[in-house]
Amino acid sequence: MRFELGWCEGARRCESPHFNQRPLGEVSLLVIHNISLPAGCFGLPHIDQLFQGCLDTNADASFAQLQGLEVSAHFLIRRNGERVQYVSCNDRAWHAGVSCYGERENCNDFSIGIELEGTDTEPYTPEQYQSLTALTQALLAEYPSLSTERIVGHCDIAPMRKTDPGQSFDWERYLGKLKEYTQALRS
């Protein structure tokens, strides 16, 4: 999997207007999220619409709170493993909100955000883990400041505000596959 100007080949490109330049151009953190619109419903066009700024907030009662929200992520991984990219990895997507990693605030400035179509409590699919692992491997190769030690959940950088990717995300499975990959690179 290759990147051109921060765009991943093989990902469906669905550009968002909700981004800006990174202040330092740095990419050194990967943040895993989850999203479903409406909550617990999968395979609908609403996530794309939200990130593109054209969500009809009258389409579902739960969307009223999203009126005027300007948000994006770099990637979404659908339940079937499809990768969608909204923002170049070289740019700042608006996924983390008020956040802190170590002593650094504003994680959007230096992170890549990957949304998994899902909820905190429903298991993610094997296709999602496979797609996420492959994408992460490509990101680790493309951005040398990223490492398996610099992968976190949204809950880790905004603990009083966010719970995703939730208890349903199998960190051991995901990080185990990544460690196998990095060990194979070293040998």
TrEMBL record:
Domain N-acetylmuramoyl-L-alanine amidase: from-to ranges: 16-166
Please provide the record's keywords in A-Z order: Cell wall biogenesis/degradation, Cytoplasm, Hydrolase, Metal-binding, Zinc
Taxonomic source organism: Shewanella baltica (strain OS155 / ATCC BAA-1091)
Output one GO BP term: peptidoglycan turnover
What is the protein name stated in its UniProt record? 1,6-anhydro-N-acetylmuramyl-L-alanine amidase AmpD
Q: Say which family it is in.
A: Belongs to the N-acetylmuramoyl-L-alanine amidase 2 family.
Where does it live in the cell?
Cytoplasm
A single GO molecular-function term is: N-acetylmuramoyl-L-alanine amidase activity
Q: What is its EC number?
A: 3.5.1.28
Q: Which Gene3D superfamilies does UniProt cross-reference here?
A: Peptidoglycan recognition protein-like
Top-level taxon of origin: Bacteria
Please tell me one Gene Ontology term that the record gives under cellular component.
cytoplasm
Q: Does the keyword Metal-binding apply?
A: yes
